[in-house]
Amino acid sequence: MIKARPFIKWAGGKTQLLPTIDSFLPKNFRKERNVTYIEPFVGGGAMLFFMLQKYPNIRRAVINDINPRLIKTYTVIRDQPQDLILSLQEIQSTYRALESDDKKKEFYLDIRRRFNSKTLTDVEEASFMIFINRTCFNGLYRENSKGEFNVPFGRYINPTICDDALIMSDSELLQKVEITHGDFAETATFVNGYTFFYFDPPYRPLDATSSFNSYVKESFDDREQKRLKDFYALLSKNGCHEILSNSDGRGRNEENVFFDELYKDYIIERVHARRFINANPSKRGVLTELLIRNYMNYQGGCDSLL
Question: I need a surface site. Which of 1, 78, 143, 213 has the fewest CB within 10 A?
Answer without folding.
Answer: 1
